[in-house]
Amino acid sequence: MATAAFLAIVGRLPAVAKVLVMLAIGAALMPASATAQGRTAPPAELKQITNDLYFFYEFAGSNAVFMVTDDGVLVIDTRTHPRPGQALLDMVRKVTDKPIKWVINSHFHGDHHFGNAPFKAAGATFVAQAETARLMQHVQAKEMARRIDGFKNQGLDPNEVKLVLPEVTFDNAMTIKLGGREVRLMYLGPGQQAGDTFVAFPHARALFTPGAFGKRSMPNMAFTPSVDSWVKLLEQVAAMDVDRILPAHGDVANRADVKELAAMLADEYATVKDAVAKGLSVDDAIKTLTFPQYKDWRNYNRLAGEIRALYELIQTGKRSYLD
Ligand SMILES: [Zn+2]
Q1: CA 219 / ligand 1 centre spacing (Å)
Q2: β-strand partners of 48
Q3: Nearest by Cα to 161 from 105, 248, 79, 58
Q4: Cα-to-centroid distance, 249 and ligand 1 (Å)
Q5: Residue 313 confidence class, pLDDT cut points 50, 70, 90
Q6: Which helix (H) or strand (E) holds 3?
């Protein structure tokens, strides 16, 4: 099909065509988990975005994307553990029996690559940005440590996690051609962390975003070397010519949502910087800076930790997690 004709058809689709709703993934793997805010998280679901692009959305966990072609499948991120990783692979298998050609790991956080092993067994080639590849190895023990409680709560055995590192790395950009499509991997500088990889699907006018963006999701501030460059990065993404944003966390979004996060980050950073400048201790800052305007955002319950992490960045310039 000619690209123009294809785009015309895509343009007529509803915002998100949901075809496969709530696949039975197994109650043990997908508890109707409550968020730390005490609300029940919506159940995980698989959304078909275009005829070849699928978005696995799990509010309480992490998302994944896969593209299905006649020549094979490309996957972005593999969830938090080999068992949910296998459940993701099972979802792919309900759509297609084509080989799993590529897995892209979008950043070093374990909730995006600890599910790699089943995809390795399925024969995929793994790719990541060079700094992501380095950090996956470098902070593996810390990434495991901060997930142990979550594994226990979900009945997942931490010993089943095996580090699967990328065989292919890139510095700034890489294009993967598969089944007549071009998939463009981009590193635009550090956002939430060094290595944050964006993936464009030009034929679908869609963009996958890594940890640097989540719709109405307060990001973890422990890894960024510069909030200013992160905000600039988001503004750059918000200006891209795409219709749909498929984030690593949170639901399908659009460019306005990216702009909204850029504004929130700038606001949060300026407010904490001001508190540091006024000589407020970190404990007093945590008591007084409650950011009530974001109380409905994902991860608002982690605010104290984020203020602490921003104090570290502003006062020392260090990111001790990455030592
Ligand atoms: Zn994550």
Answers
A1: 9
A2: 17, 54
A3: 79
A4: 6
A5: very high
A6: helix 3-12
